[in-house]
């Protein structure tokens, strides 16, 4: 059965307050009027109405009945809870008296058993108080009126179920009957098996309501959008629905092969206009600009360091440079070239792209995968299992340049045989030598680690090294290693023994290395790679400090980074044009960065697009309702579109996936273990897996203060997430919005 879209009013563009600039470009004359009418509907679409409107009256009456039912339930529940706890406490007091008196010594064991039973019961009663209770301030967000067997009844959809005292409120996540709210539209017939019973009927009404502080503020229905004046609750207005939409961006993504939310709709492009289902790069070599070409065709030896904003073509330059060098030197297309990506998903993408550039033998990898394989070859005695309890300060120390400098200083001072066993001793000594680490820390002239932190680091490392030594000696089989130890062991081998070894004990020598997202690598990691270059070798480093989201990597700035690599003074080339995101998305993303921006002004964008929009919800369930409507509409209008829903955590990704799956959203995929399909559809993921990728549409979910506080890392994370979008970006909060977007007005 065809589903009709739930109409709603258009969303307003995300905007600053009056003293700050707006994100959408300024238009004048007829163009501005046309755009405003397109977004907001005609100027006479709003009209004042009174409380006698049947829809408003029905919703006010329903909310009042819910309020009365909750009051009756709470009064009874409080008394019942109090009485039960009181009886248990009285029984515990009775048992304590008997145990103290000694009158029942022969039954002491039985009394103790009763004591433990009653204590456990009391704990359960107290714990039941902490179960998520229905919030009377926002008891529900959705309303269904169902007709079955000539009878009509109301069902409310909320965060928590409450089916007593005449209340019919069901949890959107758990209650099987809530499926009707997400899967059917007003006026449609349904025939579903719910909780083992066939339910047949009609959706007589389907509305989303906004309740704040226990008062009805908004009603979104197919008949229109109704909202009250916060200062005069009795003053209601009706606005006809003209949906905001994610539109016109179908197949815009190159890197992909294969709360006024009223009526938000995704997509208006012509579904018959075509589009690539495989999404491989379409002759991208023909799109290279002069600056990119100049970098690609640099001489074949030495350093090339490329910085550029998201979407400026850094990865394009790095990959095409490999292809350019391989044209004159075919052996570069093989095992003597290493293409190192930070993201497993981007590695997968690059693996598919390389053949189109004429590269068939070189294999891209992630640094973690490469270093683990090389470390196993050189130090097979270490365990395979990685530690998960390493303190953050220890991880930061192992990645920080002071650790690499300490290795160099120790090996310079200490004469010992050039053997792998000695390299292990060097590694263990440096990790546990407080005096040496303090000396190097002081020479760096910074306060990266306090004395107390260094003492904690050394103490933890001593226990860690001891446990690994027990594993190596066979005294224990429970050894665990830090992934950061792999790099330090390999660096110790290079400094003490010499070049790393390839298979067969021959030196591991590389002709060319390309490192993408280098800002998320540590200097020591790049030093290990540099140590593998032959004397004519070349390396391309591509990165953007504004996208630096790995806090403990040790990368501070290009100047410091290159100094730690021993190539201070190396020129850093800059790509200035943003070829990915629209000007509107670019402006939002750079405004979020604040004083973390590297350059004055915005990078030029090669495309225009719709305004960035912010939506606010009081509940995740209401957000899922909104998304389901919009995404289904997009699928109908733009079946070849790629959409990313980016959440702050795997748990939230799973929750949104479960909700949207129940709403029967088409082509929905939950990304786990970087399993992007690079094909049209909707992918739910977190930021790190999709770093380096791009999508036609991006929706950032739960951009709340708890997930995006006002910190440098959060600013960069939100910047990176926003710049995954090519054509259009929506930003959604489900609680107090992040302070990074607090200056913007929500739709």
Describe this protein's structure:
With 747 residues, the chain is an alpha/beta fold. The chain has 4 domains: 1-40 and 242-279 and 577-747, Rossmann fold; 55-128; 142-239, no CATH class; 290-576, 3-Layer(aba) Sandwich (Rossmann fold). 38% of the residues lie in helices and 18% in strands. It contains 21 helices and 25 strands. The strands form 5 sheets. Strands 2, 3, 4, 5, 6, 7, 8, 9 and 10 form a 9-stranded mixed sheet that branches. Strand 6 (189-194) and strand 7 (197-212) form a beta hairpin. Helix 5 (290-296) packs across helix 6 (314-328), helix 10 (401-413) crosses helix 12 and helix 10 packs parallel to helix 14 (483-496). The longest helix is centred in the N-terminal third of the chain and has 48 residues, at 54-101. It is globular. The two termini are 32 Å apart. Mean pLDDT is 82; it is low at 1-45 and 254-286.
Features:
747 residues, alpha/beta, Rossmann fold, 4 domains, 9-stranded mixed beta sheet, 6-stranded parallel beta sheet, 21 helices, 25 strands, 18% strand, globular
